[in-house]
UniProtKB/TrEMBL annotation:
Record's keyword annotation contains Transport: no
Keyword presence, Transport: no
Species this chain originates from: Lentilactobacillus buchneri DSM 20057
Function, as annotated: The UvrABC repair system catalyzes the recognition and processing of DNA lesions. UvrC both incises the 5' and 3' sides of the lesion. The N-terminal half is responsible for the 3' incision and the C-terminal half is responsible for the 5' incision.
Protein name: UvrABC system protein C
Family: Belongs to the UvrC family.
């Protein structure tokens, strides 16, 4: 029977083609599969009865992930690549060999041929594919040999070969065929294999209809199948190419203060690996992405590719500078652009899945609150208030509080705090101020106190809370500290006089509730800080421009909302706000200079907090 976590992920699967990767309790990939419809295929593992190997596989699945593609053909090719890379225990096919899929080749000879091959060689030939359906590729080649013949014989033999009499050979077996004749045929074949098959399909459809009219149904069925094979063969895909350039592809999606990143690694002409990252952010997603890419290649054993592809919203020149002058490009068309869009689509789906899982997780809250209080050895309660702080290098300090009642977030009770007495990064001082302000107010208003206070942090924050509650306000409210592991994921809860880890069961409802609270308070704090930081940053930068006073600054902020939009606005649009042409020109020049300096100096030094 599937766990609650698996059940929730199953409910969120898309009705799209793709590959799925089954993982065991240690996160190891134990099976890779493909599907025309991910939702139906993956659900079948957990919603049907199985025997033998499949039953054993399902019993070991603790999690799964998936990669969405555009077609069943792409799913097949990606499946082969992933199986060969990860060699999952439960995959008994496609582990060996040189790829398992053929190419159609036009040979580089005086009298060229068209044939099926399994290996790409640098021999000057034209290669098309790969084709996951071997039979469809063979039937397509047979069709091309009949319609656009080249050479089918072994060469000159003083007499016409059988294929020449059948119209499937141009006659190299007994005469000199002009190179121009071959060139015309090759041009037609290349056009056909590149997808221009409408004329051929129309011709075959006519033949099929004539055969059916004569009640030659078997012949009509053969032609129908041939049309299908042609469609399968010329269907475009982007998982495998004939370009051997090692390249990395970065794309992202942002929503509700969270950034989702997908990295595709193209090696040996294939999509060999995918990495994903998900974390809350403070700055603009473009700045975070540039910083992320910079830090990404500083990791140990991370090899630079020959080319990096990014969306057009990112500054390719700056990224190239910080990654040792590797060419960074934004593809405008073709297979590279399609791969970039596919990475963006997968990034969006990962983030949307996270949000929907959080919503579904609300059903787990029955009994979760009691699990937490039992683990802490305190009286059962209903209301939890959790706090977190946020800043950038000690600037724009803010705190935020979220409230969970009976395991459910109550957003009407959330509170935001601009810190007034702290002007630098001091966790203890920040905690004391926000706790003092929150509970002094509740005491004055004779309002209900929470049953539990949770801090997103460790011993320093917990001791600060206890100091204010007990020594200043005379309150006795239990305090816990939510701690994270090295991957910035919820790890445990500290509690007690010695701030001892409770070692909560990570599969328990209590732990799920703790995880949701920590994610929510962190998101809320980060989102609030982003607004404060953006407003202060915009104001300070505009105030530094000669001729821009408070009134002009406020007009610009109300109209455009960001420095980028102000910088991109035409001078005439600035003048419509009552700004003189001289000042408008000064604004444009100053913002372009600030932006250039910021790109060159800040991106490389900035460190991610994920």
């Amino acid at each position: 029977m599937a766990s609650e976590y698996i059940e929730h992920k199953l409910a969120l699967l898309p009705d799209m083609p793709g590959c799925y990767l089954m993982k065991d309790i240690n996160g190891k990939i134990i099976y890779v599969g493909k599907a025309k419809n991910l939702k139906n295929r993956v659900r079948s593992y957990f919603k049907s009865s199985h025997e033998g190997k499949t039953a054993r596989l399902v019993s070991e699945i603790a999690d799964f992930e998936y990669i969405v593609v555009s077609s069943d053909k792409e799913a097949f090719l990606l499946e082969i690549t992933l199986i060969q890379k990860h060699r999952p225990y439960f995959n008994i096919k496609l582990k060996q060999g040189n790829g398992g899929y053929p190419y159609i080749k036009i040979t580089n000879e005086r009298d060229p041929q068209i044939k099926i091959v399994n290996t790409l060689l640098k021999d000057g030939g034209f290669y098309f594919g790969p084709y996951p359906n071997v039979y469809a590729a063979e039937e397509t080649v047979n069709f091309l040999q009949k319609v656009y013949p080249l050479r089918r014989c072994n060469g000159f033999q003083n007499r016409p070969c059988l294929y020449y009499h059948m119209g499937q050979c141009l006659g190299a077996c007994f005469k000199v065929v002009p190179e121009e004749t071959y060139a015309k045929q090759i041009k037609r074949i290349k056009s056909f294999l590149n997808g221009n098959v409408s004329h051929a399909k129309q011709m075959l459809t006519t033949r099929m209809e004539k055969a059916a009219a004569k009640m030659e149904y078997e012949r009509a069925a053969e032609i129908r199948d041939l049309i299908k094979y042609i469609e399968i063969t010329v269907e475009k895909q982007k998982i495998i190419s004939t370009d051997n350039t090692p390249r990395d592809i970065f794309n992202y999606y942002m929503d509700k203060g969270w950034l989702s990143i997908q990295v595709f690694f193209i090696r040996q002409s294939r999509l060999m690996k995918r990495e994903k990252r998900l974390f809350p952010i403070i700055d603009d997603p473009e700045e975070e992405m540039v910083s992320f890419i910079s830090q990404f290649y500083k990791q140990k054993n991370q090899i630079l590719p020959k080319e990096i592809l990014v969306p057009k919203s990112l500054p390719t020149d700056v990224i190239s500078h910080v990654v040792e002058d590797v060419p960074v490009r934004t593809p405008q068309r073709g297979q590279k652009r399609d791969l970039l869009e596919m990475a963006g689509k997968n990034a969006q789906m990962v983030l949307e899945e996270k949000f929907r899982l959080l919503e579904l997780d609300e059903s787990k809250t029955t009994g979760a609150m009691k699990e937490l209080t039992d683990a802490m050895g305190i009286a059962p309660g209903h209301k939890i208030e959790a706090f977190d702080h946020s800043h950038i290098q000690g600037a724009d300090l803010v705190s935020a509080m979220v409230v969970f009642v009976d395991g459910q977030p109550n957003k009407n009770l959330y509170r935001k705090y601009k810190l007034k007495t702290v002007d630098h990064a001091d966790e203890a001082a920040s905690t004391k101020e926000v706790i003092r302000r929150r509970y002094t107010r509740l005491l004055k208003e004779h309002a209900e106190m929470p049953d539990l206070i949770l801090m997103d942090g460790g011993v320093i924050q917990m001791n600060a809370v206890k100091d204010v509650l007990v020594n200043e306000l005379g309150l006795n409210i239990p305090v816990g500290g939510m701690v994270k592991n090295t991957h910035h994921q919820t790890a445990d809860l500290l509690f007690g006089d010695n701030d001892t880890p409770l070692q909560l069961d990570p599969k328990s409802q209590g732990f799920y509730l703790l995880q949701r609270i920590q994610d929510e308070v962190h998101r809320f704090a980060i989102t609030y800080h982003h607004k404060v930081h953006t407003k202060n940053s915009l104001s300070s930068r505009l105030d530094s421009i000669a001729g821009v006073g408070p009134k002009t600054r406020n007009k610009l902020l109300r109209k455009f909302g960001s420095l980028r939009k102000i910088s991109n606005a035409p001078i005439e649009e600035l003048r419509q706000l009552g700004i003189s042409e001289t000042v408008a020109q000064t604004i444009k020049f100053s913002l372009s200079k600030i932006d250039e300096e910021r790109k060159v100096t800040n991106y490389q030094d900035k460190k991610l907090t994920h």
